[in-house]
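Filed under: proteins

Residues; backbone shape codes:
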Amino acid sequence: MQTDKILETIKMIDEECLDIRTITMGISLLDCADPDIHESCKKVENKICRLAKDLVKVGDDISREFGIPVVNKRISVTPIALLVAASGGDPVEYALTLERCAQKLGVNFIGGYSALVQKGFAKGDRELIESIPRALTLTQHVCSSVNIGSTKAGINMDAVKKMGQVVRTCAEMTADDNCMAAAKLVVFCNAPEDNPFMAGAFHGVGEADCVINVGVSGPGVVRAALAKLDKNASMDEVADLIKRTAFKITRMGQMVGREASKRLGVPFGIVDLSLAPTPAIGDSVAYILEEMGLDTCGAYGTTACLALLNDAVKKGGVMATSHVGGLSGAFIPVSEDAGMIAAASKGVLTLEKLEAMTAVCSVGLDMIVVDGNTSAEIISGVIADEAAIGMVNTKTTAVRIIPAIGKKVGEVLDFGGLLGSGPVIATNQTGNSIFVNRGGRIPAPLQALKN
């Protein structure tokens, strides 16, 4: 390796917050299905603990030996609703089993307390969805997701209504813990089956028995590169610089993924080359957009800048690895991004502007804190709107929204750690209950008929 490239990478890590955000082991639990829920839980615990026993150690060893921060070690599993269909019983038993695994293994999160109901409810789905508030209240490390729509299937409006209620209940049940249960729940349209990022990670039924997926990060690196670019440089030059930077970031993720795969004896899955921000100073997607020429993220032109960023990141990343997956692009979680927090606190970044930005980012409305009085119907309306953007544009969209119980617009909800803190954003409180209560299914768009 050339000396200048080595020094450049060291600077990225030391000064620009470059890291491997997560190595996530995906584990299939299909062979753990059993008519007896207690037997099924035993099989789940045995399999997870057997396959992931060295996950944290390998992550730490790679971090120490290569000098690359591997921030999170996580596990994703088969959607638990599939096991509930076979076993019956109280789904929370599975959540408690997953929590025991997380604590034994020392992982940061374990995802997959999930259901896929984009076209309707199968056996086990309703039971799992009903249990989500209890499951997330009783556990610290378990994350949940529900896919309520897709381009191929349309949007399940019965599920949309239910998830508005579930989100609200999650917030109420953990009101004395900063509404944390709602922060561990994502509602998807077009959910990817190989996403290594929480809270939406689950191990899809089309995946191998066990794989290693890697999520890279590096908003600070991209921002630092753009800061050195002439302010008169064209947008073509901006895009080229981002592509080159994304290539370097992704190569590091590819190397770590291959090394973890080899040491764990598990196939390498994908690199998710998303720019995932943190509350750390400089590690912000919003600051990248501002380096492109915006005074504050949320100003007119923000959506166009984000579209360029998302596209350039993907183009640079796909040249660096043959196995791109997950979400891949740019995340815009408000509470986890210092620049987004500042813009929202100023009132420049509104919920409506964030919704527009989700049409071109890699995921959706992420870690949005709203007035504690926001009703379940309003939350369902937000979920439906976001799902419609994903369905029509054939992209993944998601909603992770937290009604801050007891707090008003302008106040702050502080989660601590990676989740950061979020200002309470105003929502449009105009009634929509007739729409939400209609139920049924919004049909799939014409572009779904590709056969």
